[in-house]
Design goal:
By secondary structure, the chain is mainly α. 76% of the residues lie in helices and 2% in strands. The longest helix is centred in the C-terminal third of the chain and has 40 residues.
Amino acid sequence: MGHVLGDVLGFAAAVAVSPLPIIAVILILATPRGRLNGALFTIGWILGLSVLGAVMLAIASPAGASAHNHPATWVGALKLALGLFLVLFGARQWHRRPRDPSQAQLPKWMSAIDRLTPAKVFALGLALAALNAKNAPLTIAAGAAIGSAEIPVGQQIASLAIFVLISTLGLLAPLAVFLLGGERAKTTLADWKNWAAQHNVAVMAALFFVLGLKLLGDGISILVS
């Protein structure tokens, strides 16, 4: 299990520092129903990661994700494909990053966050976790890494739970500041939001490129061994 956690911690950290969900939860906390909506967004996020990871485990286990203490060929092919996608996506993001960070623009849907109902806030958290092109490949890769290890089902579930917990730290930090920070919380969260907005593309491009190279290496290693 320790070896598996070593494989998935990098993916979890990359999901945790994804700037867009952090910006979204900060904007949600600034709405009149910030406490409720912030909690619902986080619950949706946790559920999205958990469901996507669980689906990957459900596919990997009966499909024979490992054989004789070695990942199956299809796991290597999946990691190779995910790695190629992340490298290309990261390179594309880096090329499209604004040369002047102060000119970075947030997605248009963020301007409507203050008008979302609680149900839509929950759905937004779910979608950003499970359907987002930036986070879904990382969660799938983590599920494949867990499923390809010959460990008991209980340890697989525990590994997935740890992945989800670490992946949620980026949202839990603003929530903690909002609930415990007092009057300084608004200023602190505004500073975080501005930094994340300015460096969103560059941060994710670098993370995707590095993790993509790791997945490419893992996939090649599995396929040639």
